[in-house]
Structure formats: structure tokens, C-alpha cells
């Protein structure tokens, strides 16, 4: 296939089967062969344009010329680590922290969501000296061994072996398909009650933290946004989460992180 300048979709699929592990899922019965991206659009091998509402890595769209140029410029100058002094990374940290609340003023630069969440977990463990973690059902926090441990979407899924003892799963406050729904005025309190029960079980001094995705993918689905305006879902979710955070704080834990991709 490597000598063929533009392999057909079937050839690409066959080659993928040859070189990729079978556990890697591929979207759609008739998989898309995406050959290029531009801003909010993806394009397949037949030139068909798709509005990309799903791809979870390209936060500012695909191939934004400013992003491409900045990456190219930097690659042409230097690619090294933080053991040396450098002005570029300081200037980036300054500009980044200027956009954040005052208390978020120290940066750890990482390469992926998994690395960020691993680091957040280590920080929380170092800070609290504890290990137990409260996680939301259905969550995905990354692909390392520890992050699979704290990701019910994975450890409860095919081939998973469930949560380890230090991971405590509570229901996802999903007001559309969840345990308690939008029409229940006490839904938020009811979700929080599950957290209370878990905290009682863990006991004071053992809680390391609570981790949650800022926009859990299962809630922010097209179906739920059709029924409830996105802001409304987010406000309710945030309220519920704030209550959960407050509980976690009083139990001596720390809110770990909000892992990013949505
Ligand atoms: C919510 C969430 N957290 C963490 C990750 C892991 O990020 P990465 O793939 O960059 O390691 C993902 C990736 O899909 C994610 O969706």
C-alpha cells in the first residue's frame, strides 16, 4: 500500500487491520476516511464536507492558520524541556494565567489530557496524603493504567475489570437519562446524597479528591441539548457539582481536576 499514492478506503481499512490492534474502535459501519480538516469542517476522500461537532482534540478547529504557524515557527527554533531557562514558555504562562482566576497562577505544561489528569492526581495525593477518589459514573479521564482505574466508561466496559477499592463511583447527574431527571426538583440534592454516602463510607482523612469532566460527554449529547437548552443543563450540572465539591472539601479531600476534551 505504501507505493500507492491514494489508497482506496477499502485498502486503508485493510491496512489498518494489519497494523493496528483490534481493540481500537473505528466509528461507523461504513467508516469515514477523513483526508483533511479546515476550521470547523472535515473532508472525506470524496471531497464531502462534514461539520465536526465531535472530534475531541482540535479545540480551536482544524488547521487554524495561526496555530499551524505558531507550531511551525517554534519547531523551527527549539523543542526542549523545562530544565532550561526560556522566555517563550514564561511569556505563554503569563498570557495563560491572565485569562484565569487569580488563584490559578502556577502552570504545569503537559502534552495530553491523560498526562494532565495523571499529574492532577499526583498533586492531589501529595497534597492530601490520601488515596480514595470519588468519580462520576460513565466518566473517561484518559488512557493510562491509573486513569482507566478511575474511568468507569473503561473499567466497566468490555474487557474492563471494574473499579479498584480506592475508586468510589457515584451516579452521573444526568438530568435527561440519569437516575434523577430534570422534572424532579430535588434531583440535584438526590445526586449529592450519593456522594454523602460514599464520603461516610470512606471516612475522614482517606479522601484524596473528586474528579469530574467539565462537560460529561454523556450529558452533553445532541439529544439532551435538544430537550434542555445547553446552558440550562450546564447550570444544573454545575450547581450539583458545586454541592459535591463543598462536600468533598469538608471531608478533607481536594477537587482534583476537570479533564478537558468534550
Ligand atoms: C474527558 C476526557 N479526559 C481525558 C481524555 C484523555 O486525553 P488524551 O487523549 O489527550 O490523553 C479524554 C480523551 O478523549 C477525554 O475525553
Order of helices and strands: HEEEHHHEHHEHEHHE
- Let me know the average pLDDT: 84
User: How much of the residues is beta strand, in percent?
Assistant: 5-15%
CATH domain fold name of the domain at 113-257:
Aspartate Aminotransferase, domain 2
List the helices and strands and how they pair.
Layout: H1 9-19, E1 34-38, E2 41-44, E3 49-51, H2 65-77, H3 87-97, H4 113-128, E4 132-136, H5 145-149, H6 152-155, E5 167-170, H7 187-202, E6 207-211, H8 222-227, H9 230-250, E7 254-257
Parallel strand pairs: 4-5, 4-6, 6-7
Antiparallel strand pairs: 1-2, 2-3
Bound molecules: pyridoxal-5'-phosphate (PLP).
What characteristics describe this protein?
alpha/beta, Aspartate Aminotransferase, domain 2, 4-stranded parallel β-sheet, 3-stranded antiparallel β-sheet, 9 helices, globular, disordered C terminus
